[in-house]
TrEMBL record:
Superkingdom, natural source: Eukaryota
Protein name as catalogued: Mimecan
A Gene Ontology BP annotation from the UniProt entry: bone development
Record-linked Pfam families: LRR_1, LRR_8
Source species: Tetraodon nigroviridis
This protein's GO CC annotations: extracellular matrix; extracellular space
Residues in the signal sequence: 1-18
Amino acid sequence: ADLPTCLLCVCLTGSVYCEEVLPPMFTVPTLPKETAYLYARFNLIEKISTSDFGDIVTLKRIDLTGNKISEIEDGAFSKLTLLEDLNLSENRLVRLPMLPAKLIYFNANNNRLKTSGVKANAFKKMSHLRNLLLADNLLEAVPFIPDSVRILHLQNNNITEVNKDTFCKSNNTYYLRPSLSEVRLDGNPAVLSTYADSFTCMKVLPVGKYR
């Protein structure tokens, strides 16, 4: 029989720590009802199912860094209305599931994400999102970036171009993005000087290749 979660992991009030668990952990453990913070880094979890977090509506942070996750069912996070911090970095994702609208921090660095696996409006309704980290993937284009985003990491992807609507609005010359303070596009094929008029609404230029 499976060992109870709080024998395998460390359970403190509201927090569950399951890091590099032995025997190896291949699925998300059954969480105590009031769990707000889950740290399940550096295990061998391969898939996130709708049932994994279904009843744990108290979750505010989930950190699944460094697993082997290649699939997340679309409804896996849909009931997590309080979730603010989701870290899926260093996994094997080729597509993103539907994400909760209240996220403030989202990290999917070091996966295998292509633009075809990130819905055009994946981040559109996230009016609280501050940090959007999608570095070291296989994205061919910049996804829709909400106005609230302050830090955007897209370095080391396969982005070939940007346009006047990537960050700004071609039909609104008064539009500004005062929040955006760091944009990384280095390590992409796009030569950013070609698109100089695509950054007019920003207070900082993206880091990247200019010639």
